[in-house]
Fold these 4 entries.
Entry 1:
Amino acid sequence: MKPFFKPKAYFRPGSLGKAVELLSNFGDRAKVLAGGTDLLVQKPSGAECLIDIADLGLEYIKEHENGVEIGAATTVRSIGVSGSLSSEPYLVLRDAACALGTPTIRNMATIGGNICNASPAADLPLALMVLGASLTIMGPAGKREVNIGEFFENIGGKNIQADELLLSINIPASRGRCGTSFQKLRHHQTSIDIAIVNVAARMTCEKQACVKASIALGAVAPTPIYARKAEALLGKKRPNAAIIQEAASAASEEVNPIDDVRGSKWYRKKMAAVLVRRALEESSRRCGIWPE
Amino acid sequence: MKNEFSVVGKSVPRIDAYDKVTGRARYCRDLKLEGMLHAKLLRSPYPHARVKALDVSRAKSHPAVKAIATIEEVPKVVGYWWNLRTEKGMKKMFMQDNVVRFVGDPVLGVAAEDEDSAEEALSMILVQYEQLPPVFDPVESMKDQTIKIHERGNIAFHVLKEYGDIEKGFREADFVIENRFVTSKQKHATIEPIGSCIADYSPSGKLSVYSSTQLPHWSRMYLAGALGLPSSNVRIIKPYTGGAFGGRCGLIHGLELMCCHLSKKAGRPVKMSFTRKEDFEATEGRHPFLVELRTGFTKEGILTANSIKIVMDVGAYATHYIGVIADALSTGVGLYRIPHVKFEGYCVYTNKSLNGAFRGYGNPQMNFAQESQMDIVAEKLGMDPIELRLKNYRGAGEIDPVFNEKILSCGLKECLFQGAEKIRWKKKSRRSSRRGKIRKGVGMSCLMHGTGARFGLPDPASAIVLINADGSVSLETAAADDGQGNKTGLVQIAAEELGIDWRKISVSDTDTDTTPLDGGTHGSRQTYCGGIAVRKAAAQAKKSVLVFASKHLNTPQNRLDIREGVIYDTKRPSLNISLADLMRKIQIEDLSLCEQIIGAATGVAPSMPPTYGAHFAEVEVDTETGGVRVLRLVGAFDVGKAINPAHIEGQIAGGEVMGIGYALTEGLVIENGKVMNSNFADYRIPRSCDIPRIDAVIVESHEPTGPFGAKGIGEATMIGTASAIANAIYDAVGVRMKELPITQEKILVALQSFNPP
Amino acid sequence: MARVNIKIKVNGKLQELGVEAHETLLDTLRERLGLLAAKYGCGDGECGACTVLVEGNATLSCLTLAAHVDGKDIETIEGLEQGSHLHPLQESFVEQGAIQCGYCTPGMIMSAKALLDKDADPSEEKVRRAISNNLCRCTGYEKPVKAILEAARRMRGEK
């Protein structure tokens, strides 16, 4: 039977204090509403009240000395067109934003929603993972910071309590020369689908050598994951085709995808290697190093 | 040829464009009647089960619930208008029992004051099911003796036809090839979901049904038959329709009849609208085919024998099965001049949602197999695929073996030449460089598709032309317009025949109370069949006008004609009277007359002329992912005569894009009877940014039986797209994709086994 | 059930309404305001038949709660005509034969309007992307894309 989505109450708090108070009162009977593009599709039957975060001033992209801070209610569209994100290392986030859904969805969907929905195939979290972003979360006891890599737990699970609210995403400025890339495999390349596999990568380089690499993959495990073994293979070397291929193959061994209507486990593993290779090639080029 | 006609051949704007572009157009879902109730269906969670017991007591006591009708009260439709021909056929058209045969098969319907209450009431109903073993695979279903989906067994229909001597044909061949092709269950995916109607069963015995059916008159007869009413007491009103493509080619399973029963019980109008999910899970789709082809040919490229064996998945109930397999037969046998052909088809039940009419009606499936096979033959011979077609196609003057009728018009050769030119075939084909990660290729296919159903089914069309006192014209026709624009085309035909401005003609709404018998909008038939009726009715009206004009102008009738709304003497044009002046005189001014000019025509079209066409595709394949990008499509079609070229171009682009979906992404995934992709995120129809430039080439061969030379176009446009794309993929990467949809994963699997790492 | 009181401007007209917490903007437009041009096509935001403009941005009204757009400016295709004059997009859809069944047309034209209001001279690719959330099963997008480019030319005063 179709579940009923009939929340009885709608709140639109004007302050963070009020928002957190509402969240602690209702607990898991409350749902946070941002852009609505996930919530109104899922229509969770248990939602008794909706807390709309539109009036909390969480729609911003701020540049500062130590990096960039993005409000949780910032739309994906704003991220895709932001001047603050038009240079490295932020290109990966901008590209991920531009690969998410359609322009119409991007007008509505928010970065906070894309994170908190915790879909294993989400686009923006991968970019944020390779950027080493942290999340500022507010609860009854005040604010806390959590690294995005530690945010996702199992499928759809996340490190945020029912009485907590995601406020912002903080991306540290890069030290050193960076190149990044976002790759998304969709059905027959051009569709605007959910990813079969998606990959974000980042390389930090000194002279002609990669000093640090970060690779994150989506839709290949219950949560977005880092390809740690692949990352390790790239350290302190000049990226070339062989090394990149080796890293790509290693990444493909680290993933644990499922068979579903979008693709088989076999295909996803194969594609993980192809996408990681492409992501590393582009990152390397964006670093100014052409891996032959 | 250019200035032969005044309005035929011109891209006049659609008569419904203003309503549609301002948001004024009202579709079934937009309608509300006074006192209307809303209905919802309780659907089976099991693929095969007997409803042992139903407890509706709690739901009945829900204050908003006004009526409940169960599976045992409401018949299911298991036939189509072939059944209407005889009393016996009519009886076989409906079945009633307590068995559900697919996940989503309706168990009962509830009508309540509002949709939410209806939904709530459904959750209060207790059903006791006795689960029965299901069978999902048609080949298994054919063999299985233990599971019976229907009493008479799982094979709904079997056909075996032989033309010539198949063994002789193979003996005469230098080569024989055998291949097996599989096609998917495509969904119509109209943007207005399939399934919306309002039934208003008045206690006086008059039943009005608002429905977006493609077949207003047949639907009237179906409902009258099922409910035991005289046809005259049933009125079908068709509002604007948000696309049909065959998906509304009959009563919708669980919809109209349910609403009628609920309305009768409640004594109030009842509306039901399916959700998108219900559309995907429980309405008809395109029959999946398994096609085995064995083809013999000489080294010169002459086809000598073709053995075609088809297993067609009908789903849980059979509606359009015989027609669909017959269409596969007529095109599979008709397109090429093969002397020895054997065709065998099985229509098999499975415990999955039903399949029915869908743009192309059996032909896209057959075409995918046959045109892939032709490409394989050409490859084997090292012959250009176009040349192979030119050597073998059956052209004008030849006899179609299936219907034993002479082909009067065939522009296939022009389609091939012009299409090839447009895509620059000579330059691009057989590049076979097949190097690099991204590889390009081109492919083509041919097709034929009969217009209408003259040689197989009742196929009437009628029209009434009423000339009003001001010289304007009311055209009454039941030719339902689902969005194709056929009403505009019919206006052009009437205007051309009458010699008046097309803007002076208004077409009736589609309403069976006020429009005469029509066979519905299917089989690409309305421009042809409807057009013939309209032209006849207009000619008759014109003749009556000229009789009066002759008296009035005192000049022989055979010297008179009408142009731009003026009746004039062709020998002495200054002798004239406007149509408006004459009509006013005879209708109003002359008290001894008071006559309206009425032209009427009804009957069947003289033929079922095939439309011919050729598709050309250029693709790019990413050999690392298997991903395909269609770079260019050219569709060249012989339409006899383009009544409205913009409409034809619209049909071509729309059909080609639907064909891209059929080729690459579309197909319901059903696991253990459950649809796994019942939304547009996972059932992918092409989007604006996914598709290339599409070139439409219109060839006019002039069909002598058609109105101003026209024949059909709607279906032809998507029939060969998938085969052209599959052939282009082969040209690009050398793998032969024999199963639709050609997902990128399947391509990668094929590439890996073709070219092991 | 508690009603949420909202004030929205729809096609220039202020509307004060009491809506339900879970009510979508699509339902508000269709059921309360009788504006039937925005259509239900899927309810999941994938087909775009429900597209309207919120503060000038193309928005899926089936995924937007009415309460969420309190205080906002909403445009639907019913508000496009100026007196008896069609908007250039409407005109050009009529003339180019860009309409078939018409069910997707209101949503598609609103997506196109959002684009042209911000970008007077978009490329074909941009047009295709702007209407990529608007599924059409009839036209193959060929004529709608041409119609939008033609409307852009007209709005720029060319021709």
Entry 2:
Amino acid sequence: MRYQDEYRNPQAARQFERAIRRITSRPWTIMEVCGGQTHTIVKYGIAELLPPEIELIHGPGCPVCVTPLELIDKALAIAARPEVIFCSFGDMLRVPGTRGDLFAVRAAGGDVRVVYSPLDCLKFARQYPDRTVVFFAVGFETTAPANAMAVWQARRDDLRNFAVLVSHVLVPPAMSAILDSPDNRVQAFLGAGHVCMVMGCEEYRRLADRYQVPIVVTGFEPLDLLEGIYLSIRMLEEGRVGVENQYARVVQAEGNPACQRLIAEVFETGDRNWRGIGNIAGSGYRLTEAYRAFDAERRFPIDLQTREAAACISGDILRGMKKPRQCPEFAKACTPETPLGAPMVSSEGACAAYYNFGRHRQASPATVQIEVGHHA
Amino acid sequence: MPEAIAGSPTCPVPQFSYEQVVLGHGSGGRLTHNLIERLFLPAFANATLERLEDQAIVRLDGHAIDSGVGRIAFTTDAFVVRPLFFPGGDIGRLAVHGTVNDLAVGGAIPQFISAAFILEEGLAIDDLRRIVESMRIACRESGVQLVTGDTKVVERGKADQVFITTSGIGSVPAGRSLSIANARPGDRVIVSGTIGDHGIAIMSVREGLEFDTVLESDTASLVDLVRVMLDACAAIRCLRDPTRGGVAGTLNELAAASDVAVRLDETSLPIRPAVKAACELLGLDPLHVANEGKLVAVVPPEDAQRLLAVMRQHPQGREAAIIGTIEREPRKLVTMKSWIGGERVVAMLSGEMLPRIC
């Protein structure tokens, strides 16, 4: 299949594997920013193809994982209202709030629907004029254009029974926050290819200059990741900083100007809480004044007390300080059916990725003991 | 409080036990298993049920336990598919095939089935007629008679057009003993054809996805394929039809029941390009997607190639492939060597199949 099988070619993977071993002379720590990349790394067992000197740290790029608890709780409260049709991308339905998740709201009678495109919500809004259709606008810069388009069309068509609960986060401020952290260990980044497809590479050049760090804009197929890792190591070994673009088949340096204009029309940047990390200045989108009538938080003012699971160390996980299996609750109290924190929910979350695809690396739940090195 | 989280009393999100039924309880994945293990099994505890096979093999009174005669396979299955008519089949075909296949993979010769219809007020009689006609054809193809039934009608809105429950019985020839607890290290795992066709066909109709080719459900009777396979190879350890929960669900059950590891090779999985593309688009794993006319067989290594050749001669097994081996460790886990040579765990589906965000 075009654009799939070519990027999973085992012979090409071997070549990258050998090339990486050839150029690696000492330990390096590389962070892949995006959850989609974490998913591929764990799903295809990429880490074990790398020499022991190379450590991959899974970054905070899973939108499901970093959506703050108070917004999840707001979503649950809004979705439970009888006049509301609450629409969301599928992953969000299982994220635990302080009490329950969207599946539980649905089971209790709430009208919660999974959509593939935010524009589907506008269809519902036209179809049910006496209900309010609320879309949970979650994601990084990648999903922002489509979400912005839904709001833009709603305003154009005067669809007053449509609103969005906005929880948009931005990658570059999160990378800055990681690099500013006193215990930062990241030496190079694999940039999130699809975010750059929308926003371009300029912001990353500034980051690379400011922090003197290599950034390789990287795609999502196994060979993309291997090549991105190879290019990062080459820059590290050669002592170079800057931005290289592994994902040139999709990413252009200037990004997608039409998407950027639409985003700028509908959203403005503002401070945002990240689950497990805390507040990062200028790290999120909120609706601009012209579109604020579509803000679900304004339409449904809700006063909430939120409480995070005490056992969850998602902050350490999302900042790359700890690996999921270093959490005492991993695969014990915390599993995809009983997530204590968001990284265990989405298949892009580091904990879920480790649970689903990487459990054979250590003792799994129950009492199964696995011989270390069995798969070497 | 569920035992698994009793050790962490600080946890404020015990999502472990939903207070109400959620859709994931019907996904065939881990939530379904939780329901079975914590509610149904304790309530009806008996040795037959506890085997958790696709069918119960029972003996009616009057036959000695070890006599080898008079063994009956018995199974039941409910069908709630939406839409009722989909490319490659409809709820009627599915209802017959689902039940006869569950009997066949137990090594039984299906003979009689029953059908109970729950009809929603307002259903077009013409639709019901089409469903019944396709059940008639499916019964004939499978060599079974529909010998008893029931009809109930509920008010509009209390059901979704038609729900059908079928039960079936078949005779189990003497000496036959297929079980998910039979797998042994060294055995080979064979799948009878492309995986994920049914689930993706249904999902693409529901979600309005269009591909260059029409994705068709694989719903089909496995009765004849199973007969041919068992005639050719009496040493088959286990047969299962990987419906809800997909091949991953079936193999995880097998790994647990046989206390073995299953090791798959991703490059050997037969998957249609359109199904693969749809799974990529929707963020699904084809191993989790439902099949309705496929089986998974576990066979001793020395018989694998011969059985594979026999299967490929059969219309239902043309694309059969050896997809993995049974190993000793890591026990109770299914792992897979990926396209590029890495290794990962193939987990059971945990809740409802959820499309990923991006």
Entry 3:
Amino acid sequence: MNFDNINILIVGVGGQGTLLASKFLGMAAMLAGKDVKVSEVHGMSQRGGSVVTCVKIGDSVASPVIDEAQADVMLSFELAEAVRWLPYLKKGGALITSTQQINPMTVVLGRTTYPDNALKALEGSGASVKALDALKAAEECGSAKAVNIVLCGVLASMVEGVDQALWMDALKAVVPSKFYEINEKAFKKGLEG
Amino acid sequence: MKISGKLLLGNEAVAQGAYEAGVSVVSSYPGTPSTEVTENVAKYSAEEIYCEWAPNEKVAAEVAIGASVAGSRAMCCMKHVGLNVAADPLFTAAYTGVNGGLVFLVADDPGMFSSQNEQDTRFYGLSSHVPVLEPSDSQECLDYTKLAFDISEAFDTPVIVRLTTRIAHQRSLVNIGERVNHAKKYEKNISKYVMMPAMAKGRHVFVEKRMAALEAAACGEGEFAGLVPNRIEMKDKKLGIVTSGVCYQYVREVFPEASVLKLGLVHPLPEKVIREFAEQVEELLVVEELEPFIETYIKKLGIKVEGKKYFTNLGELGTAAIRKAYYGIAPDGEKAGEEVNVPARPPVFCAGCPHRAVFYVLSNLKVRVCGDIGCYSLGALDPYHALDSVVCMGASVSMAHGMQKAMEINGDLTQDKVVAVIGDSTFMHSGITSLVDVAYNKGVSTVIILDNSITGMTGHQQNPCMGYTIRNEKTVAVDLIKLCDAMGITRVKVVDPFDMKKFRATVLEETQADEPSVIIAQRPCALLKTVNYGAPVKIDEGKCVKCGSCMRLGCPAIIKSADGKYQIDASQCAGCELCVSMCPKGAISK
């Protein structure tokens, strides 16, 4: 895949850092000289709700929103969220997901159960799946908050035609300088697998 | 296409546009999806722009009107329901007109991502006789904000810039420019700025002329025609579409071959332009979210047009919804997987949230509770079910008073007293006058002010209870106890809700008192940087008897594993230790 025409859907739980991931990818696209639109979710869902962010990159982007079967890539911070948003990914599209599970309140309270074998279901779907424990990887880099950048690193390893220096410039532009080192490590961890 | 510039949020671009337009006074009340406009304005130099959080939108609008009369370019920002609060000054500022350019930035929320209704701000433009601009991306957010100030001064009118969530909260590429100052001199002019009947009658005549002149400009006539950003993209003439805002972007994707009349100014609408466009196309369609505002206008002209026959007025539209509604077909392409039943994930109180303790206690006491607007609206949901109503900012206090009076007059003895819960910022916004009503009219309600030291839901803005301004300068803080006392309410208690035993006893005592009372539940928001509870707690498996008491708090960090064990998710736990007191066996500790 490349930046000529790519729709990236980022899904997770409010508070996990999906917004920074979208900002980072948007910045990389801009530095690569592409048109880009990012659609974010602020407000109430940021309090532990299901959140989805869209990043659309190409020569000319109109709608900022990705609809069903339009995403080329889905970056998922949480397994049940990957299952929830799977219909938004094209058949054959890439799913990069962290294996982290966060119980929705309905599950915490025992009203319902967390999806059984969520990862297996995803692997058996029409998506090309790359699953990893991004939380552990981020913690190894020095901060659990760097999950977003680990996942972006994995995505970067699949994008052709964008060199590493550009990714680093984009990263520098979106993270505070005192956290740059941790995030640089996290990005490389994702990139190198 | 190579674009150089910045990748800005729609709201950031509005702030940049206002900066470039030379705005020098901005007053706002936070509200999703408008909040980031003012947060970004505050980042420019305090020497160039005076900027503040007002206690509510009415105050914000009046501050901006005053600044405009004094000769500054001024702006007030709010969400759609905020304009209801600011409607009073808007309708008469429409008569006074302006000196310095005056802009009302209003963000609607189709789909209700973070709102209590889906009202359509374009109708405010129509009924107050104020022009409404509607941008379609961040570049237009910047450009139209600048145009709004120019239109304001050219036509002597306030101007509404209307965004929707998808425009306010999308990022796209923007070319930025330099700031130009526009300050004017103040001249006393009572026939323009003192709206008593004799003067207002004269101004109403002016308002009618102004709107006619604006419509003429929108039709390409007069010296200011260049200020109106409407355009026609003539392509295939089989289908012509009239649209604006984010819907324009959807239309360009779904109907790439269609001709489009893209309206930047959605009020007043350009009759002549619409007639000419309609004559050139075989079929005329309006694509707009929420109400049939443009469609109704065109139908009134006697022109054949469709819109809401296809597109719902519920929620937001999108490319898939438009394609399906118009062509009757599902989106192109195959999905990676079909929709399956995944447990819903509604928003929840964060781990460490002070509201959790409040609603656990209220839920247990089974009192009738009128709720309000803020994070604590979540007290209505599982597992608390502790709220009986949520309507609008400040309504908790006045509704509780109304309920109480109705119960008294109906002889309803099922409850001792009705309780109101309201956040500190919401209390400042419009709870104060409601509490005056309770005291003045011999009410007996118990009002719990949830004082978490910040405006939480909208992402941590300063408010008058905190002692800090928008730019974090130290200032006076409202003394809630003295304020209640001055109203004539003598029963005021300050309690930490995490001391649940004491909090419960206080609520019980106050709901049995035969006079109005206020409980200030004081504990800071767990997301504040100054709050650090330290390490997460642990559950001692040996001591745990699996009674499930801890789960009743509804904390996202406490989990029951598949094999029936209770555990703490250390990645979620804030370390607040509220759950420690819930365990009858002392199994939870640090």
Entry 4:
Amino acid sequence: MKKRIILTPYIVWCIVFIIVPMVLVLFFGLTDESGKFTTRNLCEVFLYPDVFLRSLWLGFKATAICLVVGYLSALIISRLNVKLQKILIILVMLPMWMNFLLKIYSLMFILQDNGFINGILSSFGFSKFNMMNTEGAVILGMVYNFLTYMILPIHSSLVEIDEKLLDAAKDLGANYFMTFVKVIFPLSIPGIVSGIAMVFIPSVSTFILSKMLGGRQNFLVGDIIDMHFLGGIYDPHIGSAISLVLMILLLICTGIINQLQNENKSKKGALVI
Amino acid sequence: MNFGFKKNKIIFFILFFLILGFAAFILFKYIMLSKQNKEASLILNVYNWGNHISDGTNGYLNVNEEFEKNTGIKINYTTYPDNESLYAKLAASGTKYDVIIPSDYMIDKLKKENMLQKLDFSLIPNSSYIDEEFKNLEHDPQNEYSLPYTWGIIGIYYNKSIVSELEKEIDWNILWNKKYEKNILMFEGNPRDSFLIALLKLGFSINTTNKNELEMAANEIIKQKPLIKGYVSDQVFERVSSGETALAPYYADAWIINNKDKNLGFTIPKNTNKFLNSICVPANAEHPKEAMMYINFLCDPEIASQNISGIGYSTPENAAREKIESKFYHSKILYPDEDIIKNAQVLKNLPQDTNDLINDLWLKTRASKSNDTTKLVLIFLIFSCVYIGLKFYKSLKNKRKLNKGNLVIV
């Protein structure tokens, strides 16, 4: 009984802010303007295969870069002494305290044709090169904004590894590389899995990054949803249908990501599907 | 030894009093604020374009502040980036606005959908200052629903250090010139904006409902795509003045008159688009009377002249124009010659099927919308197969492990 009372606020929160909006998206996605059931919206969504592919591909690239960079940084940080670790983790989290939009604006300032990087390059006599409004700028924006979510879970799973295991591996004659492959890496997989999920999903559904850094040359899924709710084409029904399809696609992706870790340990993981 | 303990205690007390003082301060402030709110009778919700009122930042009058000072009515001022966002917000009708400022074709659309109420001109005596040429226009033939606020035309901003053509030679065709590849910035908030310039280039009516003409315009947009540096809805001025962009079509603005950089130019092609932003009151406004007071205040020639100087567009009130600085008054950019204004076309509200066609064509050019549905179905199938395959492989592996375990025990 007591447990239930404690859970009530959470359940109310879930219903009001998660279940109700989901039902609304479902309702809007499957009805037309007069409120009648229709599959027209869903059919419309399937006319944008390239946009979905592009979003997934960009999200995949950003996640891959985040994984490599994030894993290495987490590994290096976790090998340091506790005091230094604390400072570095705070430094990793520091950008999270800043407004998302502000970070994108500062990135724009850095990448512009007359921005920071090109300013340095031209002062050394190199010619300027265009970085804004490219696919690379969008990926950089994703990595820059979501890297923290990769480092933190990997770091915490690396710190949890018992020192004795490493000593045991050493005693049994493993060098550092073998210890990493056989002991450290498998034990850090739960962190990697939640890291990938936390980078991949916001990357695929972002719209502001491609709007500000990509110049809207080619649309991402988030752009099209944005267009249908706030932009030039006002049609919340199609917008909801696109969100619905995107949600299902991301659900499948999360399922695939979660298959990467061992079932027995999945109880410890962030997401269970 | 005890010193450390004492120091901790002192720090603790200092912190304690600081927090206490801070809390008391917030409480005090809160009480004062709620008292003030009770005194202020009501709040007027004004919804306007971004940068579309003088806010005191460039030396002119802060219009909203002045109104609050004169009347005691508080203004809740919010902004939107384009007509379609305004429409989306009104259609979703979460918030009730008292004053909105849409432009020509959107007024017609809102009026037809019964989202506007008639203005009470007995409360707006200053409406008599509006020039005759801005009355009885197509979007509001009886002058019942709207009162002109600002107007302007679209031209091309260009950087003389990059663009070699003379001002006379510049027309819409230059935006398709391969010489300026990746050096052209297009403004756009919605599909109609991007069709506008393509239609002007082809010499068609910007309100065409002809399918062939619209398809030709869509082809022009596709042709132009590789030359474009970015599609933006603002940021045009920053990017042109930093020398980052050679050409950018945009609204005529006093910004160019105030800017001292000699490399910046602005030219108005012969056939262009003219826009008129008018003040309206939504049908569900909560304070229509105060809204009329606000509109009357905005039309006062003294206020309007300060306001238009701060905004940078052109005013539909000659009485206000006479009060602005001569560099604005005589500007051919803000008040171009008669023949340009006569040739300029106005955006009109289009029938729904034409709007749908434009949206569809535009999404094909920009979001690579296709007619092929199988591709995305295939993506779904592949992803599902990968998921099921992985799951199956894992259960197989676990079974094998279990079997092995059993063998060992046996």
